Amino acid sequence: MIKRILLSILDFLLFSNLFIGICAVAQGLVTYHLLHVPADKYILAFLFFATVGLYNFSMLLAKPKDPGNSPYIRVRWIFSHHRLIISITLICILCLIPLGLWYLSLESKLLMVFTGLMAVGYNVPFLTLNKQQIGLRNIPGIKLFLIALVWSISSVLLPIVELERSYQINISSAETLLLVAKRFLFIAAITVPFDIRDLFQDKLYALKTIPVMLGEKKAYVFCQFLLGLYVLLLILFRQATVGDIVALTLTIILTGWLIFKSNIKKNEYYYFFYLDGTMVLQYLALLLVTWITQL
């Protein structure tokens, strides 16, 4: 009975995309921590509602013909709770309006509009090619780049732009570029296993994701390569404290192990909780190491 209740709560958090919203907040907090500045609660709230709303909107747009018979637990759950997902999405939109209008600078508004259009353009077929309507998802290799770019812009550039425009805190271009590059590599690495899981389905729909183009084994190697580059940047460009470097390196090692252990047969909880959860783990590791060093 207790196990069933806990599983229902987990399903709600994961498949309503509230958990990925928490991950977005955690990644924003990582940025503030590494910059050694106080976190902006309005930016964090914006990240949460924008991420939850966008992910739910994308899922609703990608509704299959018969979601009840989908092989994916997530799809079956979402469309068996269709009204709930729509309600959560509408609440997110209503919360984003005042946050965007009153608490974001003009530069941040433009940045988020651009990012939102990129994210929506992935699922919406707005281009015409050979008399067929296609979206950004049909461009070979674009999915990985687009997801990593959207996350990097929202969780790194947005906080930095607001710090500079609203709080007059200057962040150097080199430091900004380094933070964006590391976040891009990290998000890209944990995104590839999702594409490996969907390998056969993507082949069926002729989507040229990284695993489709490279193959499953090479895609796993590619993930480890991305994480290796992350650690290299972390060590070579040492704006972070020794404690932060240790914390982030340990989480990258764990992330690499989770990716290595992932495969097509793993259930969806492995991907949406463990792999996505590494985004939250990064911030928790930074907090833990900071607490230890202050003892």
TrEMBL record:
Keywords: Membrane, Transmembrane, Transmembrane helix
Positions of transmembrane segments: 12-30, 42-62, 83-104, 110-129, 141-161, 181-200, 220-237, 243-260, 272-292
Keyword Membrane found: yes
Record has Membrane as a keyword: yes
Signal peptide: none
Name used for this protein in its record: UbiA prenyltransferase family protein
Species this protein is from: Pedobacter panaciterrae
Lineage: Bacteria, Pseudomonadati, Bacteroidota, Sphingobacteriia, Sphingobacteriales
